[in-house]
């Protein structure tokens, strides 16, 4: 049960005291202004209400709600969970996450009620609980069972329960019957409670009477007898008649909603152990018309079996009970949680005019179904749609209708092609138009909508770093080039991501085959371009690869074929390529091996001597070098060369070199400036000036120009200064030198060592040396 903490019975006034809930001096000025938007005040409830700035409380102030919300805030009619009628802060059409935050309701910010109650999400918030209770049995249904989706804050995504969800038409807060009692009732014989007259409660300022409390006593008795007591037998005092029970509760309970419009709610106050507590009871549900979206299926439109025909593959389905109007739960099943850009999907939805007993055919027209889509960040928000089809643009019934008959189910079918806008997420939904609710054809909107959130399939095709040259004459892949042979070029495209087929012969404009743009050159004649070269096979799934050929692409005049290829740009535009890093360009040069090299570089003379007093000179030099011109086509080439001296250009020239034969050449360069030391010379053949005259290529991938350079050097020295002093150790030839000569003589000595047994005897020999004294000779020079 819910408790008003700290209020004891001793503080209550006597029964029978009434409170003027209207403005001072003018009982016709109500707390709210009721807006009917075409409805009559006698046959329909207001469409929405606003709080009246002219209204005054007993102390002469404007209402707390007006001071909190202002006069422009609209509170919209709502049938919560197909039962309870009140006016909510949430707009009826596509509210934002913040607009759905019930913390924005004034009464959900109070801190006087039940702050020590059961199931609170936090002791600091007295008005939000972790789940709901059954409004009639008062049994707690478990955590995350609430009737309200939390859209913001730390509990976002949870289904919790707020203490208040709306107002009566005259602006009084309605106790949420799903909000669990703060204290568990140990005795459900409610007739034993000491109930306090609601007018006495109102006189103390803890509650204000509603417009329904001003109804005639006979009307209130009828509501109690027909709608409250049958739904809550624990209120019936067995010692009293039904009429006596009904009259008693009609006098002590406050009616918080209209029992003729929806499931009524009454609130009673009783004294328990010196504290005043309140209890809200749900009445019997009235008979009202209701439309329900009972089925919502999404199909992928694709060639499932590969026969070229478009088939339907179910990827998601949602269903609600088409027979039990009280069962509002939706069952969802997702068979594949990704959708593809550019892919067409088929939607099938069914709307039923539920058999509630109302026997009501719809009157709103046209008979359509709204469908809406949200992309990326919008898809993660609440009712923030990127594209909406409604009204005349909404889905049409498969069979034209002017009304949905009572008990009838109408099928809607439409198609939607996912655009290339969404990158990661897409929300797909359908909803019964709000016009049916506004016309009174559909009492409850909570079963009107179904939505599915999908990941966007990351589709991507791209080039493979594989280019082949095919000899037309043999049909073989060539790894070298023969001039004047005709070649076909072959390229490859791969599906790197996704399972959306690429290439549909029946719809090439919407689903083109993989395509490339390429240029081809033999680096001798003019370059040729090939646009939109297409594959003929479909890429169906990640890992598939197709071949694209350009027949007879080139007949090279030289030894090389060069090509550059990119993926055609249309694949980016239609979402088939999303990872641009593999779209190219890819380049490849295929050549016969071509190499120009130099070796045997000589400079003559190799050495030069200068007078002792000279450091430089000008000399005529002769250079020789051997050049090899290797190429399969047997072409003689005029090859330029350059001679460098110490890094500076000394001489430029060229030589005509026959093919595939080392040839030696001689060049004389006169009057070359030389200085003492090593003078370094270098030759480079086929040098860059600024580009090289001849393209070279080595099939092993190494630098073909590395052997175009050779070096050599000559040494330049100065002569010694003449008349140099020569120091003599002996000025006459009369000196004497003594030499010593040595001779060694030796003899071999044999000896025998006897063993224990005869065959163990050993015979050894060795040499003994007896050096004689040295003999000296004197020699005279």
Overview of the molecule:
Helices cover about 5% and strands about 40% of the residues. The protein is built from 6 helices and 47 strands. The strands form 13 sheets. Strands 1, 14, 15, 16 and 17 form a 5-stranded antiparallel beta sheet that branches. Helix 3 packs across helix 4 (about 240-250). The longest helix is centred in the N-terminal third of the chain and has 12 residues, at about 215-230.
Estimated structural class: mainly beta
Number of helices: 6
Mean pLDDT: 86
Major sheet: 5 strands, antiparallel
Low-confidence stretches: 1-27, 755-770, 775-781
Fraction in helix: under 10%
Distance between the termini: 142 Å
Rounded to the nearest angstrom, the radius of gyration is 52 Å
Tell how many strands the DSSP assignment holds.
Answer: 47
Give me a quick take on this structure.
The chain is mostly beta strands and 781 residues long. It contains six helices and 47 strands.
Which key terms come to mind for this protein?
Immunoglobulin-like; 781 residues; five-stranded antiparallel β-sheet; 6% helix; mainly beta; disordered N terminus; single chain; 5 domains; disordered C terminus
What topology emerges from the helices and strands here?
Elements: E1 2-3, E2 32-35, E3 48-51, H1 64-69, E4 75-80, E5 84-88, E6 120-122, E7 125-129, E8 131-133, E9 140-143, E10 148-149, E11 159-162, E12 164-167, E13 173-175, E14 194-196, H2 198-203, H3 217-228, H4 242-252, E15 254-255, E16 265-272, E17 275-282, E18 291-302, E19 311-320, E20 330-334, E21 338-339, E22 344-353, E23 370-375, E24 387-389, E25 409-417, E26 425-431, H5 434-438, E27 449-456, E28 460-471, E29 477-478, E30 487-497, E31 515-521, E32 528-534, E33 545-554, E34 560-567, H6 570-573, E35 586-591, E36 595-604, E37 607-610, E38 616-630, E39 637-645, E40 648-657, E41 663-675, E42 677-685, E43 709-718, E44 737-741, E45 746-753, E46 762-769, E47 775-779
Parallel strand pairs: 21-27, 37-43
Antiparallel strand pairs: 1-17, 2-3, 3-4, 4-5, 6-7, 7-11, 8-9, 10-11, 12-13, 14-16, 15-16, 16-17, 18-19, 18-22, 19-20, 22-25, 23-24, 23-26, 26-27, 28-29, 28-30, 30-33, 31-32, 31-34, 34-35, 36-38, 38-41, 39-40, 39-42, 42-43, 44-47, 45-46
